[in-house]
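G., before I forget:
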Amino acid sequence: MKTKITLIIACFLAMRLSAQNPNIEQDSIVALETVELTAIIKKKIETDMKMTVSVDEFLASSDNISFIKRGAYAWEPLLNNMSSERSTITIDGMHIFGACTDKMDPITSYVESNNLSEIDIKSGQEGSMHGATVAGSIDLKRKSTAFSDYSMWKGAYQSGFEFNNKQFFNLGNVSFSNDKWVADASIAYRKADDYNDGNNEEVEHSQFTKFNTSLGLAYKTSELASVKVEAIYDEAKDVGYPALPMDLWLSRALITSVSYKQLFDEGLLRAFDAKIYFNAIEHYMDDTTRPENLVHMDMPGWSTTYGLIAKGNFKTNRLSSEIQLNAYNNLSIAEMRMYPQDRSERTMFAYSWPWVTTRYAGLSMNNSWDISEKSSVNFGGTLGINYNHSKYVDFNWIFHPGAPQEKTRLLPSLNANYLLNLNSFNFSVGAGYGHRAPSVSEGYGYYIYNSFDRYDYIGNPDLKNEISYELNASAGFSNDKLSIQANVNYFYIKNYIIGRILSLGSPMNYQSVGVKGYTSLDHATLFNFSLNSSYAISDDFHWKGTLTYARGKDENDNNLPFIRPLSYQTSLHYKYKKINIQTSVNGDFEQIHYSPEYGEDETPSYTIWNASIDYSLRLFDYKTVFQIGAENILNEYYSTYADWGNIPRMGRNVFTSLKINF
Amino acid sequence: MTALGVAVMSCTIDKTDFEAELNTEIIEYVEFSEAVSINSDDYQISIEALNGTFYKGYNEIRLQLRNIQSNQDIENSEISFLPIITTYNGEVASCPHSYNLEYNDIEDYYSGYVVFTENSSDTESWMLYISFTVEGQIFTVTRDIIVEEQTNKNLNMTSFTGNDGEQYYIALVAPQSPEIGENELVAGIYKYQQPEGEAGDFPDPSQFTFYEAENYTLLLDPRMPEPSMGNHSSPNNQDLIQYEDGLYYGVVNYTMTGNWTLNFIMLNADGETIKGTEVPTDFTPGVEGVKSELHIDILF
């Protein structure tokens, strides 16, 4: 929410700035940078506490993101307290879909902090630009260096060690630019052992190893146009998921794109951008590390997507618009093969995703209209077509006889926001309406074991579209010293999709206690609130505080699962010469509104204290920062409301890191 | 672009070829060919069966009768068909079969079925006794045949004495090669007619009368017996009821490949249990599934 508001303000400011200066710089090099008409908040990929963070840790620092954690790796981001099916997660607008039926691989696990420049989070229907959504969108923006008049090399190297899980990481990135060419490259390697909880007990199967590298190459074809080829390769190996009955043996992702960008000095159309992309993910789970498992099972998954994005930015005196065409095709396949106790006997095979194709094409528009110096309106909409096809539809027919093999859905979306700035105060109100199609698992999943509530889940191809009606508002005040910002949003979601116990069938996975089918509730409601404030005690001494609250209910006023209880964070930051000292306390109150129906129990409150100190120096003429800190200093034993199976979180963790810029 | 991606990243583990996966256990036979040919005087009898082989269990048979001299097929002859097994101790018995073969004038053959209850072995052998009429004259022929073991468990059979004291046979007819998902399950249910009179000259057909059991219901509960599957079952199955062709039709859903047990309870027209017991429905991981006393195991 805050992100959104900041975004809107940033957007608004950007519009105003360019409105005051209608002559776009003739220098195309600069132009390539400045004609980003959709302004985005620039947030460095680091948190207040830690300068070298994982993508997950960085996302966690955003108010409207929480996480379902199944271990130390690959957390599933929840936007506005909604699971990842309800948000669109993209990399530079490219759609990518995880290949694991158990959500071991959210898209955020296939990038690394050193190949990202920022993460653009939009709440609710404002996020529909990249595709149909309910919760909003998370767009991971890749690093991209601008063309420069003279040849320039830049780079950074980060290394560090985290003592709790003996995580050792090395991240490097380098870029080259001149007036014709730009190259960006990054490489990263992380390796961690099991972590220890607050009782100093090892949490088994929480290790991970991750390798990530990326390359981008841009060429300026004319004064105002450029072509770019980009690729990311990510490989995770031997990753433990303590909350799941299985680990990961190997996952690999290849994410590629070619794009073309053309800017225009004058006229209505100011920028045109087109991109084609292809990405492929393979994901192989592994249960051989879990001798307690009764059944050995192979569960490989594959997800392949290709797509197209084309967008144009238009501008008149007071109105600026962005029109975007999005199209993609995804094929998701997941297999399960169970081995009988007598291995010479026939294996038992089934698809958990029976070759499900998803095709989407959508046309989106977003407009920003400056009514006056003080107020503006943002409005937009998307019309999308979503098509699904299940190749081995017999699997779906077992529970839903006669369900259609293919299904086409129309996904409309509308949103509008009014923003008002009065001196030090700002206000906004907005509304949104949008549909989303069921995800592959919700529509076509087959005996997908959910170790949280211990049910096997069955998809329903006939599910109705989920329809979201959304209201949001914000109010804020800021001056030189103090800033306060409050945000609320409310979602009324019709046909809310969730698993309900089926009286049919019996479990397939041996840990399971029954079968649940994805069904539509008549509706569900969600309310999110956040309050942010900061105060500058002196020029070098700052305080920040955040309070968030959320409430989710189903049609019968029962609690929805994974809704964050009242939580808080407060931090102090002190700067003395080249030394920065920061300390923070964060925690959740007791989770009173838990949902036993979905396997939740009451999670007690917890409080965590963190601190870090960093020192900037010049090492061989390179700008260098050294940081040491500790998370969970008091070694509290805790698990949060969204820790899968109540696995305990990490105990005290001392971390060190070094960053050299050159 | 796609080509580049594929080139850079071929899969580490190959995807399963689903069609091949379904056929690893099963060779599906769809072609009828000659299983036995018998000459008698000027006539030749040719019996076709699937794959040219008689198997234990249900066999559809197609018989052709031909005058060798004139090279003419003979239509509308009255043909009787009687399989007889001689057991190791010299006893003789038969098995469910259609005694009178009907002429099918569209396909030009005499059609019937036989459910062999045993395969041929060193100690047990099968003999066919066939009679036919041509122009009012009756011819009889006998011929020993080989009945092979049925390796496709989807065509398994079972025989039992019901609670009413009668001898019953249940033979699976289809699907030969099941799919994951919904399958039409077809079975023949047969009953042995206890002879009333004294045996006449061997082979006296009145001693070997079988008929299609009528108006029974076969309650179906398919389950995976493998201990790790914990008595797993499937939804939306339908009990087998008799159709006009005399066979019993129902629906079985297989949720995955592997070993399945079709647990049956056979009811007569009055709803009385002839054979079979209810099986537990609870999910019991690690324990081999309990089977009904009337069941047939399949595998695909």
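The helical segments of chain B are 2-8, 18-22. Residues 105 and 248 of chain B are 25 Å apart (CA to CA).

More on Monday.
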